[in-house]
Each structure stands twice: as C-alpha cells, then as structure tokens.
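Appendix B. Chain record.
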Amino acid sequence: MKKIVFITLSLLLALSFWNCEKDDICAEGTPTTPRVIIEFYDAANPTVLKNVTNLRVEEFGTNEGVVFNETLDETNEARYLTNGNKIAIPLKTFANISEFDFKFNYGDASENNDVISFTYDRDEIYISRACGYKTIFSLTANNPSVFPATGYWIQNIEVMQPNIETENEVHVKIYF
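Structure tokens predicted for this chain:
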C-alpha cells in the first residue's frame, strides 16, 4: 500500500512540473528597437570628433526633450542636455518620418536651432512572446534633411549606415 501511495504521489508531482510553462519575462539583454547613433565632428577637420555644447534634442513641434541623463529627475533640465560627441535618439515606430529640433547652446543667448528630418522605411521583427516586436529602420534618403539649410550650426550630415538594426555602430555623422 505504501508503494502505491508513493508511486501515485511521485507521478502527480512529476506531472505538475511537466505542465509548468516558462515565465513570460523578457530577458534584459534582449535586443530592442535601436536608436539612431549620431557622432559629431569638426567641420574644419572632418576626422576629429567634436563635443557639442549643451545640446538639447526635441521632437519637432513639441517641447519634449530626448533623455540623455536617465539618472536625473524629470524636473532637472540637465536630464535633457548633452555635452559629448555621440548621442542616440529614437525614431518613431508608427511613422516613416521623424523630425528633431537640435538646439545647440541651449538656454544661452547664442542658442542655435536646426531641424533634422529623417525619412525611413520600417520593418517589424518578432522577438518572442514575452518581448513582442522590435522595429528596424532603413533610411530612404541619402542624407537627412536640415532646415534651415544655411545660416545655422550644422554644416553637413553624412549617413554612414542607412540600415539601423543595432546600436553598435555609428549611423550618422554631423559636421559643425
């Protein structure tokens, strides 16, 4: 009798583990929708990286800044400013065009604004049930458009990698 009870309990226990499903948790290292990686260069010496000064990037027509310093509080203006030579900005996943207002020397009397327009095709790729989809982009124009075309701080834009599939490479170079 003890053997039958032991075997029955063992089978029930084994069946309970067999019917378990994996947790639907997206692993931290799973690739997500990539952002456009932009590096800034000196227009006078195009091989030299150059730091921007108090650059704020906003979605055009809004006052919503791209977050560069995630550790800072949302009310801290420095959260939306960068002074480096490399940035990452997100493209819209629901449209084929994204426009950004690049504000150089933000908050200073010498503030300069240029609007950059990225036109692209989108392709959604299924990752997993837990992670859903990610979008990859392919820039359709040779160069992103800059408005106004003259008189402001950006002098030239060069697309290095039109296919935006990862954040491991530079996609666009801006010379100023």
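Further analysis of this model is presented in Appendix C.
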